[in-house]
Design goal:
Length: 129
């Protein structure tokens, strides 16, 4: 296979990395308490935080890292499902509980966030957003 350039310790998640303009963006879930059971008909009750990390693509150095508290009540609670989307100077994430967030690529400053449940009165699907 290809030679490994660098490695990074990450937390839980189903989302892949997004690569843009010499940076790698990874969205994961930092579990604080609860058990991930991976049962299709039962919601995992978890406490933790969703986290977006920006790495230098050449070196693997963490350029910035941002997170927000987010408890999970979803089946297969092992983290966010959606790969970050990069558009110019912004990166967008969609968390498993419906938090759509816009961040600045330069420093990770949060520009805005909307939660689907609060904004639209919808319940999180059992397998998350």
């Amino acid at each position: 296979g290809a030679p490994v350039k660098w490695r990074a310790d990450v937390a839980y998640g189903y989302a892949g990395p997004a690569i843009s303009d010499g940076k790698v963006y990874l969205f994961d879930y930092v579990l604080e308490s609860g058990e991930i059971a991976n049962l299709p008909s039962r919601r995992d009750e978890l406490t933790g935080a969703e986290r977006l990390t920006c790495f230098d693509a050449a070196t693997g150095k963490v350029l910035w890292r941002k997170q927000y508290d987010r408890d999970y009540a979803v089946s297969y609670g092992g983290g966010p499902r959606c790969t970050p989307t990069v558009d110019g100077d912004r990166v967008y994430t969609l968390g498993a509980e419906g938090d759509l967030t816009c961040w600045k690529t330069a420093d990770g400053a949060q520009l805005w966030q909307i939660n689907f449940g609060e904004a639209f009165g919808v319940e999180t699907p059992i397998w998350g957003h």
